[in-house]
Amino acid sequence: MTIPFIDLAAQFAAIEPDVRTRMDRVLAHGQFIMGPEVAEMEAALAEFVGEGRECISCASGTEALLIALMALGIGPGDEVITTPFTFVATGEMIALLGATPVFVDVRLEDANIDERLIEAAITARTKAIIPVSLYGQPSDMVAIERIADAHGLTVIEDAAQSFGAEQGGVRSCGLSRLATTSFFPSKPLGCYGDGGAIFTSDPELAQAMREIRVHGQSKRYVHTRIGVGGRMDTLQCAVVLAKMTRFGEELDLRAEVAQRYCDGLSGLDPALRLIEVATDRTSVWAQYTVRVTDRDGLAAALQAEGIPTAVHYPVPLNDQPAYRDLARGGATPNARVLAGTVMSLPMSADLSMQDQMRIIATIKRTLQS
């Protein structure tokens, strides 16, 4: 039998009554845009992230990045430092506003931006830094914030994959002045369509972003700034509220699944290496990703056993056709190494121990044969 890469069906079965009740409530009141569930979800998410945070929901994780950058006034002539080893949305929103993405290489051990290389990339045109908390683990946000403070820059944590993770006891999305996340269905906290959110401790930025997401309106038909149609619809907020009732339990289950992978796959160097989690951080394991020397061979062997895999991400952004001549930055050899070796394995809170042991056994048998 084929093992699901992400078992959303099992998750739905565990929360189905609450999902249906909350969605039926929206269908009954009919406020499909900016209904009461929107404010309810924003309050719940802000409380989860930590005291002093405001949450602004929006149409997607991509839209969250766009709105955050717009609120900072990022535009032509500006530079924004980020990682080349991520989904395209991070660099895409910088370029969309006419600014220049400046790509800084990543660490091999955890695939996150190497904070030791950031300062050398800062110029008079640098306006912000966007570290991406990849695979579920925050970048070293403490070190990055220290660098940003020294140069008067704003940090936007792209936490699309790390909502619920921590550094030093502070939750992702609460580690910087601005943070964004995604509720795409495959995320640890996902809805049943597109959705996202922005978090900030700055009331003025929060107000600006609330206006930007509704076409720049400060009140109906009064447009005080350029904006977008960036609202998260009420039905999707209802889904996130239902999923939050099980989210803490799911994070514990994901950690258990990840630990079984770590225990079962350790000691296979150099054919397979694990992505490391720093001692001052936790991961929500948005993906369980390893580095494999013969990726194609292992993927084929797993596929033959009904075990799906994925590659996040096969081409660094600075090697993508649209960004080769647009972006700035130095060499990023680690990003290229990772792009050629990473492989993500089935991962979800509901992955059964039996299925997981089958995955681990197939990997070991293939690599040790």
Can you walk through the features of this model?
It is a single chain. The chain is of the alpha/beta class and 369 residues long. The protein folds into 2 domains: 234 residues, Type I PLP-dependent aspartate aminotransferase-like (Major domain) (Aspartate Aminotransferase, domain 2, 3-Layer(aba) Sandwich), CATH 3.40.640; 122 residues, Alpha-Beta Complex (Aspartate Aminotransferase, domain 1). Helix content is 40%, strand content 15%. It contains 11 helices and 14 strands. It has a 7-stranded mixed β-sheet, with helices on both faces. A hairpin with a 2-residue loop joins strand 10 and strand 11. Helix 2 runs parallel beside helix 8. The protein is globular and about 70 Å long. The two termini are 23 Å apart.
Q: What can be said about this structure in brief?
A:
The chain is α/β, with parallel strands linked by helices. 40% of the residues lie in helices and 15% in strands.
